[in-house]
């Protein structure tokens, strides 16, 4: 049996790994293009869906932090998005990454990004839960038995009339949101450059 973690997962290490993944994938984003025409209905639809996913992910992350308020390691948060999934921040982050992949117009790249980042966050969630189970015992075991880990169950939603909001975690999330949103104009710029064949690219599905 795996020994429970003595303290919370090092979130700086998780963020560092995710940043490294994006650095490695950046050349792929820049130097590849979809096999379909960039002006085709399929690519345009994928791009629009991707933009909606990114916006929904940003809003979902803010919504989740409003409820957790930095208290995720101090008590069992079960309200709002946490009533539907134990790690809604990771769900919305994965959704945002899927949106970035779709905006590229490549199905292969969208799947690769989603699987890579989703896998890293799923592993992180399991490591976090070792600490949470150690800290909260039966209360967290009951929560885990009723609520899915990452994929939300909408039927479980519940929320109190009032919640206490801590502003500091929201400031940190603001910069994460900028990273996601900044990719929208970046993607449009890359599409323009690729469409005009400004530099050589490799076509992928």
From TrEMBL:
It is found in: Endomembrane system. Its main location: membrane. The chain crosses the membrane at residues 16-36, 48-68, 89-113. One of its GO terms (cellular component) is endomembrane system. Coiled coil: none annotated. Keywords: Membrane, Transmembrane, Transmembrane helix. Gene3D superfamilies: 1.20.120.1630. It is a multi-pass membrane protein. InterPro entries: Metal_cation-efflux_comp, Phopholipid_MeTrfase. The keyword NAD does not apply. Signal peptide: none annotated. This is Isoprenylcysteine carboxylmethyltransferase family protein. It comes from Wenxinia marina DSM 24838.
